[in-house]
Every structure is written in C-alpha cells, then in structure tokens.
Amino acid sequence: MPSETLWEIAKAEVEKRGINGSEGDGAEIGEKSVFFIGSKNGGKTTIILRCLDRDEPPKPTLALEYTYGRRAKGHNTPKDIAHFWELGGGTSLLDLISVPITSDTLRTFSLVLVLDLSKPNDLWPTMENLLQATKSHVDKMIMKLGKTNPKAASEMRQKIWNNMQKDHPQDRELIDPFPVPLVIIGSKYDIFQDFESEKRKVICKTLRFVAHYYGASLMFTSKSEALLLKIRGVINQLAFGIDKSKSICVDQNKPLFITAGLDSFSQIGSPPVPENDIGKLHAHSPMELWKKVYEKLFPPKSINTLKNIKDPARDPQYAESEVDEMRIQKDQELEQYKRSSSKSWKQIELDS
C-alpha cells in the first residue's frame, strides 16, 4: 500500500472535524487552520517553514499546498494541531480559496496575507483581489453555518468585534472587521527600507489604514532572524492560541508591528496627498479614497498572471510514475488522433 499523501491526510482531518463538530458546539477542539495568501514569490513558504522549525529550502507553490504542525500546551498533555494552507500563484488561482474554508473549519480559521513590499505597484491589486475573494467566500460559509448553528455564527461575529480596542469608540463606526482573524505581513523589508522617504510614508500609512479598517494586525518582515522570530510568535498565536503580543511600532523608518486594535484613524491621519488635491479625487468611501491616493503614486501594472503559471503536471517535484506513464500514453494517443484527423481532412480536400 502506498503511503498517504498530504491531500489524503488533509481530507481525513477535515472529515474528522466534521464528525467532532456535530457533537456539542465543537468550538474548542484543539485544532486551528491558518491560510496563507498573497503576492507571488512573496515569502509565504519561508514564513511557514520558519514557524514549523523546518530547515529546508522553500519550493515554489504552484497551486494549493497543505502541511501541519503539532504543539503541546504543557507536560503530558495532548498536542494541538495546526493546519497550514498556502495558495500559490498570487491572484491567479482565486477559485481554490474555497477548498480550505468550510463551515466546519470556519470557527478556528485565520488568514495571513503576505504582501511583497518591494513591488508597490502590484501591492494594492493583489491585496484587494485576494481579500475580496476570501471575504466573499467566508461570508457565504458564515451564512451556511448560521442555518445549522445560528448561535455559533453569531458568536463568530461578536468575537471579531470583541477583539477591537475600546479606546477609540469613534473608529468602531468606520471600520468593517474581517469575518475571521486577519494578519497582514509586508515582506522583503530589507529592500523596502531603501525606498525614498515619501514612498515609504505612503505605503506605510496606506497599509495601516487597510489593516485598521479590517481589524487586522500589520507587521513587516525580511530575512532578518529577529523579524522572523516576531512573525513566528504572531503565527503561533493564530495556530496554537498562545498569548498575543502587545508591542507596537508605527515608525515608518522601522519595521511596522501593530497588533489588531492598537492603531487608530487619528494616529494614522489623512491620506498623504496635498489638501487642494483631495477635492479632485472622487471617492464613495474612505477605502476608495485611499486606493486612489495610493494608485496615483503607484499605478497598477496590467499583468496577466496566468501566463506565468507553469504546468504542475510536468513539474518534477510532483512526479508519480503510474500517473506520469498514463499521462504520456494519453498524450501519444492525442497526437496520433491529431495526425489521423489531419490526414482525413487532407484526403477530403483532395477528393473534393
């Protein structure tokens, strides 16, 4: 018998959670899921490997990948399980978002959005497309959960609001918390720190606004061991429920580190644009206004991300002899069919 693949393990775990979830309300089952999405080649795999203490070179994520980690809360106690999902391809594989997010996993689910700070022109469209697609699916799953367990769905919404600080009550009227815990990570800070001061200011203020609007944590990282350790602590909080960090850094000349709820719109300030230009920007919401200001300095590039996706079936890291042999056979049959079809059409032309 061949050993189980990670997909089979993941499927078995999801099915087991579904069974466990039907007994009682299933809110605390010692399992959590963390879903990494974000910029292509943005460093998602590197962060996951660092969190799991795996000393191995990261491989490109072509579609959707799964791994897991275990951690004991104390001596002689069962180990909690954390399921790590990673979406590859940037924004080109949005349909796969629905795979790890189900009504069964929803209550113990967290989202990590990794954005490549070294590519500011791609930052807003990547962030916007991924967050909109994910939020849309999560909202559908909450509605589905509400039909079978309205109490659990209501508790989910209330829990998100409870995580917001009460020091700035006026902000609560303007924010729209993401339906599951969200962490936004700006990667490649080592490149970003060499940007011009004005560009760094716009990127920092914009990401602070977006993070605070969605009730998310925001932090920057790079290959620096000190920064990776801070990120690891944040991810471990999502995956295993350890204590949340209360530290904060809002200095644009340093790596940002802001835990959800600790920022405020008054501290962030208005969009970084001359006052006489604000009136010229026609926007229907604060989010749209910040988008227009950001894209004025960093206009998005029109890139067909699908062109950059290689065929996973031909990638050697996914080689499976039996499947590959069958694939070769089918390819040969297809080529033979094409040749025979071509001959048939030529014969028809000659006869006519």
Automatic annotation (TrEMBL):
Q: Which InterPro entries does this UniProt record tie to the protein?
A: DYNC2LI1, Dynein_light_int_chain, P-loop_NTPase
- Which is one GO molecular function term here? dynein heavy chain binding
Give the UniProt keywords, A-Z. Cell projection, Cilium, Cilium biogenesis/degradation, Cytoplasm, Cytoskeleton, Developmental protein, Dynein, Microtubule, Motor protein
The cellular location(s) given in this protein's UniProt record come to: Cytoplasm, Cytoskeleton, Cilium axoneme; Cytoplasm, Cytoskeleton, Cilium basal body; Cytoplasm, Cytoskeleton, Microtubule organizing center, Centrosome
GO-annotated biological processes: intraciliary retrograde transport; intraciliary transport involved in cilium assembly
Q: Which domain of life is it from?
A: Eukaryota
Any keyword Cytoplasm?
yes
Record bears the keyword Cytoplasm: yes
Name this polypeptide is given: Cytoplasmic dynein 2 light intermediate chain 1
Native organism taxonomy: Eukaryota, Metazoa, Chordata, Craniata, Vertebrata
